[in-house]
Structure formats: structure tokens, C-alpha cells
Amino acid sequence: MKSVVEEEFNNKKLPNKNTQAVKNSQIKMFSKRLGKEIICLFIILCTTYATLINLKNDNTNKGPSPKPFFHSNSCVEDYYDGDLKAALDKAFQVDLAVIMFYAPWDVDSIESREAFEEACIINNDEVYFAAVNCWQPDSICNKILKGNKIYPMIVAYDYTKSGVPYSGPSDDAAYLTRFIDLMKRPVILLKNKLDLVKVHRKFHNVLVTLVDFKTSDGWDLYSIVLGAAINNLKSDPLQMYVKWCIAIWPMNDNESIIKLHLWNRTLAYNHSIINQEKLERWVLQETKLTSRWVPSPGRSRSQLLEETFNYGPTMLLFTPQNPYLDMHPTYSMFQALSIEYFNCGKNNIQGHYITKYIKKQLKFFFEERPKYVKQCFQMLKKKNPSKLMNLQKILNNTFENYRNYNAPEVTLKPENNIFNEAFCEVTQSFFSNRAKSFCSFNGDKRITIQNRKQQPSLNYESTDQFINYWNENECYRSLLAEKYFKFSEPQYKTNVKEANVFGLACTANKTMTFIALDSKRFHHVAKGFGINLNQFRENTALLMYDKKNEIAHVLPKETHITKETMAKFLLDFLENRSKRHLKFSSDPELNIHSYNSKSTVKDSICIETLNSRNFNDAVFNSTENVVVYFYTSYCAYCQVVAHVLLTVAHLMRNVKDLKFFRFNGGNNDLSWYLTVDAYPTIIIFPAKKKSDSHIFPRESELTSKNLSQFILSNLSIETRLQAMVGLCRMWDSSENYSKHVHYCLKDIKLACDANISQALQAYRRGLVYRQQNKNVNLTRIFNRLRYLKLFSLVLDVTHNLNYKSMSKFGEIYDLYLTQS
User: Which of 315, 317, 330 is nearest to 511 (CA)?
Assistant: First the structure.
């Protein structure tokens, strides 16, 4: 044996050939590993380089380039790149600017674009309009207004350079124009107390501040009232609740500087300190409204209706609003009614004169105003045809053709605000130095907005030109009002005697609230009460709603809404003479629900949809068994139940006096004893026994089998046998059709024979009773026996339920119905 040392020595003496081969193999393996590492390193370097390139490109490409939101020839200056600073710099150079902050992808912004441009066409001679894209990434507007997620946002900037957000509907140029007009003239100038009487009769709630412009304190007081009036437009963009006025007549020593004239009394501001915040709070607390106009479902008014309904009964007037008009004829009558209702004091002179003035204005509105509108058209046609051209563009709604429109060059200056000009005339008589007068309120700088066509600028310092401009502007607003909505005088079909509602608020045991809603904005609320405003004259409807008692009353649509008809409607409600209004809906798309099958047998079936008006006639028919399925559109499980009901109705279609209906409880109302408390609900009303109606048990599973058994258990024996034959056809598509039909008909045969036995026993007992009482009538039992006998004979010869055999069962049943 060789030792371990010898073996190692022998191994070291291997041939040179083998040693060289091992070395070559090791070199090859090293080369392969090195090559793989070099390749991996190259790939990593390439990937890193590509990533750096992409990162660099990401920093330079920050999204798609912005595009104009308004067309190039629009009077709205579009800052589509989001340059907020440039827009504000331009806005702060004019007396009044309106800026729309939008997102180009936002649906509300797109819908509001046309209205904003229309408002610009109407007001661009005095107001600067701009639009800023606040969605553009890395823009100034996007960075500053990053938290704003609501688009569009419309803000008006007045001469104080403070923004007043517009809370009205942004997709309506009329509302926006009314807001802009109030921004231009937020307060009314009263020269004497006769002007106050006129304003008070027109607006009912008026704040009057006596200002002496000869003193610095007077100017400070004016600034406070003006700021409060402007700030009030945030919550009341149409100034529907309080009218703010400045009076310049001589002041008495005992007379209060600030007074709030309400419809029934006058309040004085007795606080020692007067500032804008306290004045606004005082007006808000003391203002009492007999009726309230809600023009738009704004964000701040989301809970108004719910709170009003919880308070007590509410009279709701749905009528179109026309923001171009200071007077709404239907709402004025509604307002006069509310004043009379709350006028408990016999010596309330204000309320008496207000109602008298409203009656006078209504007569002028329907008789004299049409003549004034015609005169306005002729005057603008002669003096300022460009106004009519703009009006025609709005009428035709052709903003595509507006690209050829060339707006005139208008020179704007601080004095061209008409409200400021009125004070300029007044204060010039107080100050000999023009620098101290109101004419220099914003300095003497002149701002020119360059547009596409030049025309001579208006000289507003000329009294004649100022009056002409004012008249033209008023005429233009009148034509816009005719374009927006035209009210027609209500016709009296019958002489309605006016009901006496004076002071009923103090004698009636019900608290009443009067609210008017814009039909265009609140049509969904009317639909919730089952009122289709399109079916009412001028989309105007009157509703009385009592949430506590779940009662609603609606003035019939054929009745013209006048103060007399509204008063009678109110009195009928207070004296419980009103007929309850049942919510009604008849959507033609949901009228028929058909069952279709590939079978050659005539097996089509339809389930008709009932509503509040035809429910009683269809259900309480004494000759028919009626199954009614109550559902709502928001009930998901109702869709499953509808399929089960349709299947059973299809199987029982051969029973002629068994009808299936469905009723949408969400869109229709019924009398209290027919109203269900849960959905879905199925009720059967048996023929000749409607009072024995039954509800499908809630604890039972609603399947075709259970529903069929429920219906059969509530039918007479004659109708039940006929329905059972129909149920045997449920195996039409089964492979063992003959076998199933045989056993099904056999069960019906056993039931028929059992009923024949019971009928014979009843007939025999009847013969015994008849011997004692000749008035006993056995005709009904005899007809039943004859029907059961014929039915049993047909069952004996029936082996297949085809159209011919089903016709035989139908003929027997028709004969029975005729004789009974």
C-alpha cells in the first residue's frame, strides 16, 4: 500500500499535457465571468443615462400647453396661461372689473362660459371682464388659489379693490348682469322724503342713512354704508331683501342718522359706535320679511327649504324670475298677500300704502309698459343701433358669429360710474374746490381700454349726455327683459271674490311662511311634489305644503294665479277646505313592462304602471282580482322582485279577471289607508271583496312558488283552478314535459273533485233550508257545480297544454263569468 505522502508526490508528477488543459479551462471561465460583468455594467450605465434624460425632460415638459378658453374676438380678456398678476393689475386700473376663475375641463365652467360672455356684451361699456385659468399647472393662479376646488368662481372688484364673490347662478347672464348693476350702484340716492316713499313702496325693506357731505364725518359714514351694501351682495346678490339708500335732505336734531324702514314699522340705529360690521349685523337681525324670494339654490341656501318646512306650513310659489326687471308681477301679488296676512295692526299705514302701490304698479306693468318697450326699441334703433345689434346676437344665441364683432373703444375714468356721477353733481354745489368733491374720489387719472374700433368717448360731465346715456341704458335693459321672459296679464274666467286675509297671522292657529322659488332653478323641487311646471301657465304654480301632517295642496293649473285666487287658496287651507294633492307621475318610458319568450305560443304579457289618478279605478274594480306591486326607483331589491312578479304574471295570463299592476310610490301619492311603509310590497285585492286585501308576508321568501301560492290562496275556487292550469305550463322547456304536466293536471283534478263534493254538500243543505225559507237562493252554488263539472270533464280529456286546450278552459271560464 502507498502512503498518503507517496500519493501526493505522484500527483505532482502528472503529465504536462493534463496540467495545461486545466489552466486553459480556468482562463475560459474567468473570461466568461468578466464578459458578463462588463455587459451588466454597460446596461446599468445606459439605464442610468436614460433615466437622467427622462428626468430632465420631465422638468422641461410640464404638461400640455394651455389653450384659449374664449375665442380670440371675445370681449372677455382670457388669461388662459393662469397669469393672475396681469389680470389683477388690469382690473385694479378700472372702477369695476369682473373676473371668472375657471378650469378648462370643468363642466360648470364650460356651461358658464357662454353666459359670462353674454354678460360681457351687455356691460362691457362700463365693466372690465377677464377670465383666468386657475387649473394650469405652475401658474400664479394655481399656486395662490390652490385650495379652491369649486369652479367657476366669479369675483367682482370695485373701486376699493376688494373682491366680492358672486353667489348666484353662474350660467345665467341675466342674474350676473343684475349683480353687476348692483355693484355699480349698490346704494340709491334720495334727495327728499318723497323719494323715500317711492323706494319704500317698491322694495318694502329700506335702510336710509342721512349723510352730510360737507363734513369729513359724512364721508366716513358714507364709506361705511357703501361698504356694508357691497358686502351684503355676497349673501343677497340681487338685493331682494334690503335696499340700501343715502339721503341728503337737511337733518333734524332729534332725527336718527340711520333708520331701517320695514313694511310695518321703522327702527332707529341707536348704537353709539357705527362701523361696517355692526351695521351689517344690526340690519340682519332686525329685518323681518313677510315673504322671501329664493332665486337660486346656492351653497348658502342648501338648508333653507328644510328649515322652513320644519317650522310650519309653507306657501310655495314657483314662478320664473326675470333679473332684468325690478318688479315681478306674480311675486308682487304674492308679496302683497303676505303683507295683508301679517298685517295685524289696524293702524299700519306702511302696509296699507305698500299693497295699494303694488296694485297700481301691476296695472302700469300690463297696460303701459308694452308701450314703453316699443318706444325704447324705436329710440335705440335711431340713436344707438349697436345696442340692438348686441341684443340680436343674444336673441339668436350665435356666439360663433360674434367673431366678426368689433367692440368700440371706450374711454373709462373714475367719474363714469353713474352712481359716482350723481354724487359728483351733488357735491360740486358743496365744494368750490373740485379736488375735494366726490368727482375726484379716485383721482384724475384716465384709463383707456384698447379695443378694435374707435368712436368718440362719452362726456359724462355733460348733463344732457348723462341723461341720454341713462335713458338708453334703461331702454336696453327693458328690451333684454322682454327677451329673457315676458309676463302676460292673467285672464279672469270667472269673477273671483277676494277673500279677507287681513291679520290672519294673529288669529289663525297655524304659522305660515311665504316663499317664492325660481321655476327655472327649482323645477326639481316642484317635481318632488308631483308638479310638472311645463303644464302650468307661464311655468307658475302655487303649492301649500304642511310637512308635519304630510299634506300638500296645489292650486289647479287651469286657475290663473292672481292675488284673489291666492287669497282664496290660503283661506281654504286655513279653514281645512282644501283638497289634498296627490303626487302624480306618468312617465311613458315606464308605462309598460313586457315579458318576451321564444315560444310559439301567444305568451306576451305586460304589467301596466299605475299612478295617483288611475289607481282607484284600476284596483277597486269589483269584477277583477288585482295584484299591485309597490316599488320605488331607488329600491335595488325591487328589481329582483319585478322579475319574480313578471314570471308569475306570465304563467297566470290565462286568467282574464286577474290583473297585475305596479305602482311607483316614490313619484305618486295615495290616500293614507293605501300608503305602504316599505318597498317592495305586493298586495292582492280580491274581486267583490276589496276590503279583504292581503299583503304578501314580509317574513316569507319572495320566490315564484311562494308568490303563486299567496295569490292562489286569495282567489275564489273557480279562478284558482283556472290559475293552477296556467302554472302547469312552467315546464314548457323541460325534457320530462309530458310527465310533469300529467302530474300537475292530476293534482288539479283532485282539487276539482274535492270542491265538487263540497259544492254538492252545500247544495243539499241549501235545499233543506229552502223548504223552511223560500228566499234562499241556490243559483250561485248551482253555477259553481256546473262550472266544476265542465272543468273536470275537460281535465279528463286534456293531456297537453297547448293553445287549443287552453282555449277550452278559457271558454268554460268565460261562460261562468257571464252567468255569475
Answer: 315
H-helix or E-strand spanning residue 701: none
**Cell 430632465 found at:** 56
Residue 276 CA to residue 227 CA, distance in Å, equals 7
Three-state SS for 671? Answer: coil
> pLDDT tens digits, residue range 218-248?
899 999 999 999 999 988 888 888 999 999 9
The distance from CA 281 to its chain's CA centroid, rounded to whole angstroms, is 31
DSSP notation for 58-122: HHH--SSPP--SS-TT-SSEEETT--HHHHHHHHTTSS-EEEEEE-TT-HHHHHHHHHHHHHHHH
Q: Which three cell numbers stand for residue 63?
A: 404638461
Same domain for 783 and 805: yes
Give me the CATH number covering residue 136: 3.40.30.10
Q: Are 348 and 264 in contact (CB under 8 A)?
A: yes
* Rounded Cα distance, 120 and 394, in Å: 11
Prediction pTM value = 0.68
- Predicted confidence (pLDDT) per residue in 168-227, tens digit: 889 999 999 999 999 999 999 999 888 888 888 888 889 999 998 888 888 999 999 999
Question: Which residues contact residue 311 at a Cβ distance below 8 angstroms, ignoring those fewer than 6 apart?
Answer: 511, 513
- How many structural domains comprise the chain? 5
User: Scanning the structure block, which residue is given the C-alpha cell 303676505?
Assistant: 338
For cell 500519493, name the residue. 7
Read off the amino acid at residue 327.
Answer: M
CB burial of residue 782 (10 Å; 0-12, 13-18, 19+): middle
Strands, E assignment, 233-319: 243-247, 258-261, 266-268, 291-294, 314-319
**Structural domain of 25:** 4-60
pLDDT per position as a tens digit, 265-322: 889 998 888 899 999 999 989 988 888 888 776 544 556 788 888 888 999 999 999 9
How far is 755 from 760, CA to CA, in rounded Å?
A: 8
Are 187 and 229 contacting, i.e. CB atoms less than 8 angstroms apart?
Answer: yes
Rounded-to-integer distance, Cα 528 and Cα 651, Å: 36
Edge-to-edge strand order for the sheet containing 188-190? 188-190, 243-247, 206-210, 258-261, 266-268
644 and 680, same domain (yes or no) = yes
**CB of 291 closer than 8 Å to CB of 315:** no
Domain final position from 154, 179, 204: 179
- CB-side exposure of 312: number of CA atoms within 13 Å? 9
